[in-house]
Specification:
mainly alpha, 4 helices, elongated
Length: about 120
């Protein structure tokens, strides 16, 4: 991610500049509906001031948001398992009983990362 620091710095500045030029305020001061309108324009590649086009930055931001929300918490996102809770994912398990494989049974959340099990190598990120 360190190699994307400049991409994020310039992209976030471009979002603010676009919000300022089109709405008269920085992005953070806009209402939720105005922020949605700005993001929609960026997604549709209609916003100026983005190197490579606004849609390219939107897709990067969206991809990293999804990865951060739903990845294993070991990697720094999905704090307190909020992403997994959102989609009902019970967490990593070493073994899954026949009972837990039934469609009418909701498995209890283990709130465990794969790296909470000794067989996985934490290594360096």
């Amino acid at each position: 991610m360190k190699n994307l620091r400049s991409v994020y710095s310039s992209g976030l500045a471009a979002i603010n500049n676009y919000a300022q030029s089109s709405k008269g305020m920085p992005f953070s001061k806009l209402s939720a509906s105005e922020q949605d309108a700005i993001l929609k324009a960026i997604e549709q590649n209609q916003a100026n001031g983005f190197a490579g086009g606004s849609a390219q930055f939107f897709n990067l931001l969206r991809t990293h948001t999804i990865q951060g929300t739903f990845s294993d918490p070991f990697y720094g996102g999905n704090e307190n398992f909020i992403g997994w809770d959102l989609i009902g994912y019970p967490g990593a398990r070493i073994a899954v009983s026949a009972n837990l494989q039934r469609m009418d049974v909701k498995p209890e959340s283990s709130r465990k990362s794969a790296y909470d099990y000794g067989m996985f190598n934490k290594g360096e990120i």
